[in-house]
Amino acid sequence: MKHTAIVWFRNDLRLHDNEALTEALLKAEMVVPVFVFDERVFKGKTSFGFSKTSVYRTKFIIESVLDLRAHLRKLGSDLIIRTGKPEEEISRLAAEVQSQWVYCNRERTTEEVSVQDKLEKNLWKIGQELCYVRGKMLYHTADLPFPVSQVPDIFTTFRKEIENIIPLRKPLEAPEVIPFPVYRHDRGEVPTLADLGKETVPYQHIENEKFIGGESHALKQLHYYLYETNHISQYKETRNKMLGWTFSSKFSAWLAIGCLSPKKVMQELLQYEKTVNKNESTYWLYFELLWRDYFRLIGKKYGNRIFQKNGIRNIQNGGRDDMVAFHAWRDGKTGVPLIDANMRQLAQTGFMSNRGRQNVASFLIKDLKVNWLIGAEYFESMLIDYDPCSNYGNWNYIAGIGNDPREDRCFNIPLQSKKYDPNGDFIRYWIPELDAVPGTHIHQPDLMSIEMQAKYGFITGKDYPSAIINTAKWI
Ligand SMILES: Cc1cc2nc3c(=O)[nH]c(=O)nc-3n(C[C@H](O)[C@H](O)[C@H](O)COP(=O)(O)OP(=O)(O)OC[C@H]3O[C@@H](n4cnc5c(N)ncnc54)[C@H](O)[C@@H]3O)c2cc1C
Predict the structure, then answer these.
(1) Comparing C-alpha atoms, which of 471, 339, 359 is closest to residue 410?
(2) Backbone φ and ψ of 358, nearest 5°
(3) Is the pLDDT of residue 136 over 90?
(4) Do residue 470 and residue 381 come from a single domain?
(5) Could you tell me the distance, in angstroms and rounded to a whole number, from the CA of residue 359 to the centre of ligand 1?
């Protein structure tokens, strides 16, 4: 009898640098790839009642699964598709194909761990084994100079112990053939947005057009950002901008669902440095990927604490469950243009720049005094690139209960607005009500006289909301 392994694709929807797939191919003669649309993830709600997965991320995942299936079919294999609970669907599949092992990337955050634990127990009942591999990070934990429990609590300390010291591993090659057994059951269809309870995306901004899920598009974006446009060479200068497609890499969505491996990004980046250009900008992309690894390690080190109100440092904080303030923030109606523009972008595309995320999170926590968990859960729902460790790690950081060594950091929003959107182009794009307002006044329209507001075609409180807080403190 030929040995068979199932590969359970989770947040690793790619063929390149896929450790689960590589290990399964080494161990078994036949390999059965599977993806399960977990109904709890696509149809469930977060604790504050948001949809667990927005239409943007759902669409991106559907596209990624379709792309993966097409790649597997080209190699003589296929992707079995199921909708339901992975722990049940995969153990049923394991019984059907009489496999010996199920391979998957090990997840470290509560909900994902609970699913993999249940699957492991179900597999034990039928004499099969769940084999865990890694694959999310740039560095393997075994290569680090400290155990996970000793990961430094300050990013700079972590970085200095890694960069230029720990060698980078090369990504694994994509397989050329994947032997697939005779399978007489239904292979399953990829569900539509409607099947998963979502409407179609009603907007047509650049982000809606360009964020297309799948390894093919991930590799295209990598090539585009490095070789096709050389935008990488200006990354350090442009990365804090907010308007448009080219100011930062936009790799996050593909990295989050694993259409792109961070080791693959690094391999291409090093090649680019060798053959085209090496400068501070190319270094800075590596620097940001280190942040990604860092938050994953912090998630491992502190476990559930990243999801708790007092955060990893267990600091009492007085954020209130003020849903009125939260709704104004969520709907882009705070009367503070930088915040409203960013929140409208998130609602209409599922994406927001890093600069935007820092400002809106700071505003919700420090100015509106709202419980940061509500904001983090809303981000979890909406972000096309949602990743539990990056999201909750960054929220912990901004709430002052995480890894920020500076006490009580608080953004001055109009100052940030003037610095990073000096002419107000980003604000005007997302807030057409302020279309005629010149750059000199757009950052704090509530400071304009009624006459001046009327001259520029709006009245606060009527056409655009009055500021939700007293903004005099920012003058
Ligand atoms: C409150 C808040 C929530 C966030 N939630 C997420 C999230 O759920 N998923 C996510 O991928 N990123 C998150 N980030 C980090 C960051 O904003 C995004 O990774 C980045 O904006 C994505 O755009 P990009 O790919 O063009 O980034 P680039 O600037 O091109 O950076 C390259 C890559 O580096 C990584 N990276 C960059 N900055 C960070 C960071 N601060 N933390 C972790 N990784 C980083 C990402 O993988 C990114 O794709 C969050 C940041 C904040 C402040």
Answers:
(1) 359
(2) -65, -45
(3) no
(4) yes
(5) 14
